[in-house]
Amino acid sequence: MTTVRFVAFRLVGMLAVLLVIAAVTYALFYALPTNPAQLSCGKPCTPENLARVKSFLGYDLPWYQQFLDYLRGVVVGRTYGSGQAAIVCGAPCFGYSFQLNDTVTNLIASRLPVTVSIAVGAAIVWLVFGVAGGVASALKRGSLVDRGIMTVAIAGVSAPTYLVGLLAILLFGFTLGILPASGYVAFADDPVGWLTHLILPWFTLAFVSGAIYARLTRGQMLEVMGEDYIRTARAKGLRESQVVVRHGLRNALLPVVTLFGLDLGSLLGGAVITEKVFSMQGLGSLLISAVSTLDLQVVVGFTLFAAFLIVFANFVVDIVYGLVDPRVRSRA
């Protein structure tokens, strides 16, 4: 029952946060002194065409009615216009791009596989290498191993993503010629090509983000391994590997899990720089294109979708946190 109440409490909180984000996002892009209908009207935009666009998009309605229509569209879908010219946008409807002649949901869905491929693969690489490096560094504190791992970690934290990506392209793509320098191949078309095209983006992101995880894991492990229950575990005769994994690493990973969920949620919302450097058409490139062309429907829809990913990732982290540490559930 405690677990059910904990999940329900977190779910209600997630929905409340999403509602606030939707209201703020809508206000920022539509209540400011801009004219979304003018942006969708095209050129030349006569007063008659502008009036038709306003009526078609519902911008001639009061602002609160527009916001409620937008929320209803996200939940149950909506229809723009009427008659034969009507455009049906199925749920979840994040808007319709008149510049690209497609729903924002379809545009996001078409780019999402690229971003998911980059984000999930990179997250696995940086989590494995970051945590393993942090544990090894903590257990070998002050040694050559510790200094070497921390030196690499500092380089990763300090280096900008675009610089690491360009150096990786120069070395492995052009100089050695062992990996593709850019582009994306769908997994269904060529699994091997999909893998080889993603290795450089994965390790570029992992080098930058894994460094943070290595430093965080090292600090947590040093603190945890000095606790009394670790000495008690050793006094009971447990093997050192059991002490480290079962008692040390399990407690040290709690803040790592929190950071990982937020990082993965943010990355799924678009690895903008990485996609640009490696010429991949993911969500990040869609956002850049929408901003440059002032495609407001795409910008608003994308912002809400990215916010949903981050909030949902935070929700999953809370659930995992509650499973790992029962004290969290009891306080909910």
Compact summary:
With 332 residues, the protein is mainly alpha-helical. 75% of the residues lie in helices and 3% in strands.
Provide a descriptive summary of the structure in words:
The protein is mainly alpha-helical. The chain contains 15 helices and four strands. It has helices spanning 2-31, 36-41, 47-57, 63-76, 104-139, 144-158, 161-175, 191-224, 228-235, 240-252, 254-268, 272-277, 283-292, 296-324, 326-331, and strands at 78-80, 87-89, 96-97, 102-103. The protein has a two-stranded antiparallel ribbon with strand order 1-2. It has a two-stranded antiparallel ribbon with strand order 3-4. The mean pLDDT is 84.
Number of helices: 15
Dominant shape: globular
Topology as a string of helices (H) and strands (E): HHHHEEEEHHHHHHHHHHH
Q: Give average pLDDT, whole number.
A: 84
Radius of gyration: 24 Å
Strand content: under 5%
Helix content: over 70%
Strand count, sense and barrel status of the largest sheet are: 2 strands, antiparallel
Largest sheet strand order: 1-2
Number of strands: 4
Task: Tell me the structural class.
Answer: mainly alpha
Unreliable spans are none
- Amino- and carboxy-terminal Cα gap: 12 Å
Which keywords apply here?
mainly alpha; two-stranded antiparallel sheet; 15 helices; 75% helix; 3% strand
